[in-house]
Amino acid sequence: MASELSANDTTIDGIAVPPTIDDAKHQETEQPASFGFQVIRRNGKVTHFDINKIAVAMTKAFLAVEGGNAAASSRVHDTVKELTDQVVDAFQRRMPNGGTLHIEDIQDQVELALMRNNQHQVARNYILYRTERAKERAEQAVTDGDIPEEHKINVIRADGSSAPLDVKGMRALVTESSEGLEEVDAERILNDTCRNLFDGVKESDVAQALCMSARTLIELEPNYSYVSARLLLNTLRQEALGFLDMPTNNITTQADMGTVYGDYFKNYIHRAIELELLDSRLGQYDLDKLASAIDYERDLQFTYLGLQTLYDRYFIHSDDTRFELPQAFFMRVAMGLAINEIDRETRTIEFYKLLSSFDFMSSTPTLFNSGTLRPQLSSCYLTTVPDHLEGIYGAIKDNALLSKFAGGLGNDWTPVRGLGAHIKGTNGKSQGVVPFLKVANDTAVAVNQGGKRKGAVCAYLETWHIDVEDFLDLRKNTGDDRRRTHDMNTANWIPDLFMKRVAEEQDWTLFSPNETPDLHDLTGKAFEKAYVAYEEKAKNGEMRIHKTVKANDLWRKMLGMLFETGHPWVTFKDPCNLRYTNQHMGAVHSSNLCTEITLHTNDGEIAVCNLGSVNLAAHVDENGLNQEKLQKTINTAMRMLDNVIDYNFYSVPQARNSNLRHRPVGLGIMGFQDALYKLKLPYSSNEAIEFADRSMENVSYYTIQASTDLAEERGRYSSFEGSLWSQGIMPIDSMKKLGSERGGY
Predict the structure, then answer these.
(1) Last residue of a domain, one of 526, 556, 585
(2) How far apart are CA 371 and CA 648, in angstroms?
(3) Residue 557 sits in a domain of what CATH number?
(4) Can you state the angle between helices 551-565 and 496-503, rounded to 10 degrees?
């Protein structure tokens, strides 16, 4: 071993230093472990990962410090094995399915393992040796624009031909992508990329490697997120223009797009219509007018995560080839929303400018489907499941059809009779609500949202339902898996009376809804009167199915499950009903998937919510909230949301009936924390509370005013008469009614 060290090692300050991994002689084994990894050597060649080389290099590192006698030391042997395993484990955690590692990455991990194991002298010598070898390589390197000769590698084009790596073009692209951004280093991105390329790499992978190199630096400087987005944008440009057979240079820069975006947009619309991806009516627009309104520089506003999300889920594609660029995407959405307007082009441009500025954003289904052949633009649907087999499976079918086109679902399961309840038609006993919830859960998994994201559903159950205790366990990871719904959200629908019983430490009675059918539609004092009457019947033996529990015990289990599984969520029935503006049309039986919509449902109506969000951060400046801009944004946003109702594709008739009759829209906000940051207000401060109150009062006022203006132009919704609106009762006024019903609680 001593002679081997003297032959292969070098000395620094008289200290023998071991060779690093790439210099270690390969010790032959019958089957060297590769763990699914490949290694890029410094010459660009790719070899199999060999764990033995790490062990050999570490062993020699210890020998250089402790002398030749260490070779026989079981301590050194065990330490080397432990450290080698740590290095491999680190890469397996980073890339569970295997991948490609650079030789420098492996050596970095070896250094880290040595230092974490307190082998500081060994690590020091290892680092010094690596530094010395790096200097030697730098002196011998032949450069081409600061890129070593060893990186003059060939790339494989799409047609199978080979060409030298275009380093100058890569530098131009990275430099342009870094323009105007502080604290970013274009050369670092370029060098990191070249270090990880190998001879024979695909041309398409080079662009991806540039993007990934910039992405790894985001945690060091947030502006690298913009660089990554711009590099991804380059890939998208190449993909889109190539698909449309438009002439491109090897690298089409953002500056180049200023001259071709208009032609691209028109080609994109015509090709998408030809492929039956977009509504043919979009071809009837004045495309020249729309193209001239496109601001292609707004493509540069994206961060990496935002653009990557659009690329993965939102952009129009054919056989996984994206040919919709960001501004074409926003214009397509705007065209769909303006399709029924009299002056379509003017409204389209108005909608486009609002969306592309990020001042307002439509909901995900609207962004997915506007302008397509089946424009299902509504966000969420609320249904009530009836208590008969045909109705139950009809509701599950409705779930599938609504989820198919990207709708989220909120199901009210309270009417379904509980476990052990009598079934008259078969003279048997019910299995309760849980087996049907399992079917609904699996349906949500089977039918995803337009192929773009997983199906999503939330089941609601009132707290007096006999199956509520089993309902609380649905998301547990233990127990009978046939009575678990791991993919479905759940929520408690709690009447105020239950919370009174908790506060007063009283009993709570559970019933089967087939014996208490009116409780489902009652709220407030009327609910309390009927519920107490049913309890009296139960005491007198007049009820078949009932169970008495301590209200505190049930409440404790609710909170325990919420802590353990995150479900079921806690929602309150009475406030949702007593403050509901359209309560004259029926009772609110559940909320939606996101628990922000309260609309009534029944056998003939599936409630629909049409959503959008104002970006609050875009409406604050050094003077605070910009009310003039906020009002302008809300006026346009409310018109867009109202247009959704008439333009929407309805996969089930009950949803159409409800949406056209009541015309509900929901305008919310996003970017609240960003707004506080711009205003330099701590989140937990009284000033932040004051800003929240003041800003939302403005949003509410301008939204109601915009709705009133639309009613004057288009007429009021058909069920307006009898609503709280018609009585002059604003949402803020309904708090008084809630307080009166609660009687001091």
Answers:
(1) 585
(2) 10
(3) 3.20.70.20
(4) 110
- Asked whether residue 363 is assigned to any structural domain, the reply reads no
Annotation says 626 is catalytic:
no
For the cut 90, the answer to whether the pLDDT of residue 349 exceeds it is yes
Question: Looking at the structure, do residues 276 and 333 belong to the same domain, yes or no?
Answer: yes
**Together in a domain, 413 and 480:** yes
Is-catalytic flag, 504?
Answer: no
How confident is the model at residue 303, as a pLDDT?
A: 95
Q: Give the active site residue among 66, 594, 657, 698.
A: 594
Query: Hunting for tokens 């922000």 — which residue is that?
Result: 596
The tokens describing 162, both together, are 């080979």
583 vs 28: which has the higher pLDDT: 583
pLDDT of amino acid 145: 45
Q: Which of 179, 596, 687, 721 is catalytic?
A: 596
Residue 13 buriedness (CB in 10 A; 0-12 / 13-18 / 19+): exposed
Task: Enter the pTM of the model.
Answer: 0.78
Those residues with Cβ within 8 angstroms of residue 397's Cβ, 6 or more apart along the chain or in another chain: none
Give the residue numbers spanning the domain of 465: 380-585
User: How many angstroms from the chain centroid is the CA of residue 502?
Assistant: 37
CA distance 511 to 394: 25
Q: What DSSP element (H or E) covers 384?
A: strand 380-384
Q: Among 125, 441, 592, 610, which one carries the catalytic annotation?
A: 592
Per-residue DSSP letter, 137: H
- What DSSP assignment string belongs to 213-237? HHHTTTTT-TTHHHHHHHHHHHHHH
Residue 745 has pLDDT above 80, yes or no: no
594 noted as active-site residue: yes
CA-to-CA dists, residue 576 to 85, 502, 573, 689, 743, angstroms: 57, 20, 5, 24, 17
**Residues 392 and 412 occupy one common structural domain:** yes
Angle at 688 between CA 682 and CA 690, to 5 degrees: 155
Q: Which residues pair with 285 in a beta bridge?
A: none
